[in-house]
């Protein structure tokens, strides 16, 4: 029945698995904070025009993958297919550019929606961690972002990482390259896929990004944008390489990287990991110096990246990385029949002292309560029976060492915290 099935291309995060997400998200928050990035939360949906102007109407995202609909006010609304355009809109709407620059923002566990064929590491609803830096023009911040992503993934346990970088120029030098690329492709148009025939006329750079094998074959000897960079773009790219070289991070220049969004300028980059099924992009980003202006603001340089959380978790699984699973409870209160109120009161006292505590709410026998405590990996049990109730005490048991202590009820929380 459809009522008991998640829509195709979506996935539930189950209670027994959520600790893995929380672990990765905590690492991501720490990585962002180390660079001075603060969290931003933008709406799940935006006006469709934002993505038409920002992402570009020649991209696959806009042409094929967006979830777009009319609301009850006959306004065109789109579930966000990427995070950067919404962050730029937020910057403009709230005049964040008027504060001290650069404005550094990150988003975490942000839902992203793309209507594409579900496959390994790709879902129609997935979640991203992204960093966006507005107002910094130097390549040092490009390098900072690459290093942040590289260190984060390495710290999580992703192996065989490499950094691929490229420069796709700016509006001043890119037209010359477009002309050279179109001249190169002119005799090959009939061999291109239907999408690339359209891209050839509207945005030939997109042809380099096509995943169709026949198109990839046609462009393998295409001219490189790096040979057409203006002086400013060339200097920027050289500074980026110098910073990465000084950091010791392995990188290589890949002139075929263009990324899938029209707002990119100058730097584009991908973090790649080698898997049994070939190379997999785990993080991608670049510079988008013209996006804010395209959305109606004053010119403002910017750079950022996005990283899919589901893909990171998938990679950790493939690498055999074990994420430590925390105990569900610090203490589970067990009791004999007739002492429900004493157990309930103790649970609330323990929670008030900052411990994760619970009791049986299903009418289990005392033996079954201990079995349940074991299943939840509770660190301690606290048992109340007739003797304990009469003396105002509780019997504590360390579930790892099996050691037991009987202490006054009002000393239970402190005893648990200090138990070596």
What report would you give on this structure?
It is a single chain. Strands 1-5-6-11-10-9-7-8 form an eight-stranded mixed sheet, with helices on both faces. With 420 residues, it is of the alpha+beta class. 36% of the residues lie in helices and 23% in strands. The protein contains 15 helices and 16 strands. The mean pLDDT is 93.
Task: Show the helix and strand layout.
Blueprint: H1 18-34, E1 38-39, E2 45-47, H2 48-54, H3 60-65, E3 67-70, E4 76-79, H4 84-93, E5 103-113, E6 125-134, H5 139-156, E7 161-167, H6 174-185, H7 194-202, H8 213-218, H9 231-247, E8 251-253, E9 265-275, E10 278-287, H10 291-294, E11 302-308, H11 309-318, E12 331-335, H12 340-352, E13 357-359, H13 366-375, E14 380-384, H14 386-391, E15 393-398, E16 404-408, H15 412-418
Parallel strand pairs: 1-5, 7-8, 12-13, 12-14
Antiparallel strand pairs: 2-4, 3-4, 5-6, 6-11, 7-9, 9-10, 10-11, 14-15, 15-16
- Binned, the helix content reads 25-40%
Shape descriptor reads elongated
What is the number of helices? 15
Task: Please name the fourth-level CATH homologous superfamily of the largest domain.
Answer: Bira Bifunctional Protein, Domain 2
Distance between the termini: 51 Å
Can you tell me the CATH architecture of the largest domain? 2-Layer Sandwich
Please outline the major beta sheet: 8 strands, mixed
* Mean pLDDT across every amino acid position: 93
Low-confidence stretches: none
When the domains are counted, the total is 3
CATH topology of the largest domain: BirA Bifunctional Protein, domain 2
Structural class: alpha+beta
Radius of gyration: 28 Å
Count the E strands: 16
Identify the CATH class of the largest domain.
Alpha Beta
């Amino acid at each position: 029945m459809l009522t008991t099935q998640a829509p195709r291309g979506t996935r539930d995060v189950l209670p027994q698995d959520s600790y893995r997400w929380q672990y990765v998200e905590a690492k991501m928050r720490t990585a962002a904070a180390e660079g001075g990035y603060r969290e931003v939360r933008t709406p799940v949906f935006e006006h469709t025009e934002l993505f038409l102007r920002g992402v570009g109407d020649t991209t696959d995202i806009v042409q094929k993958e967006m979830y777009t609909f009319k609301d009850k006010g006959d306004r065109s609304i789109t579930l966000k297919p990427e995070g950067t355009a919404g962050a730029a809109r937020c910057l403009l709407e709230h005049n964040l550019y008027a504060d001290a620059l650069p404005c550094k923002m990150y988003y975490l566990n942000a839902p992203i929606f793309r209507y594409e064929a579900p496959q390994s590491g790709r879902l129609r609803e997935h979640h991203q961690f992204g960093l966006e830096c507005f107002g910094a023009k130097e390549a040092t911040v490009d390098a900072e972002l690459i290093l942040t992503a590289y260190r984060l993934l390495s710290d999580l346990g992703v192996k065989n990482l490499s950094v691929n970088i490229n420069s796709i120029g700016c509006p001043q030098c890119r037209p010359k390259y477009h002309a050279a690329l179109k001249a190169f492709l002119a005799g090959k148009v009939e061999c291109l896929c239907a999408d690339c025939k359209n891209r050839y006329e509207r945005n030939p750079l997109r042809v380099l990004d096509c995943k169709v094998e026949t198109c990839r074959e046609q462009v393998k000897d295409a001219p490189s944008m790096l040979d057409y960079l203006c002086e400013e773009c060339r200097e920027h790219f050289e500074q980026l390489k110098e910073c990465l070289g000084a950091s010791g991070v392995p990188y290589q220049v890949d002139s075929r990287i263009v990324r899938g969004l029209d707002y990119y300028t100058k730097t584009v980059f991908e973090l790649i990991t080698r898997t049994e099924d070939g190379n997999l992009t785990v993080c991608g980003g670049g510079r988008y110096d013209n996006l804010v202006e395209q959305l109606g603001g004053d010119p403002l340089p910017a750079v950022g990246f996005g990283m899919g959380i589901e893909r990171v978790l998938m990679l950790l699984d493939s690498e055999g990385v074990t994420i430590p699973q925390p105990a569900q409870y610090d203490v589970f209160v067990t009791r004999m029949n007739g002492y429900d109120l004493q157990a309930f009161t103790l649970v609330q006292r323990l929670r008030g002292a900052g411990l994760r505590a619970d009791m049986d709410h299903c009418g289990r026998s005392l033996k079954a309560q201990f079995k349940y405590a074991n299943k939840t990996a509770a660190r301690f049990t606290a048992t109340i029976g007739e003797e304990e109730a009469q003396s105002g005490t509780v019997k504590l048991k360390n579930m790892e060492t099996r050691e037991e202590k009987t202490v006054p009820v009002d000393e239970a929380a402190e005893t648990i915290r200090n138990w070596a």
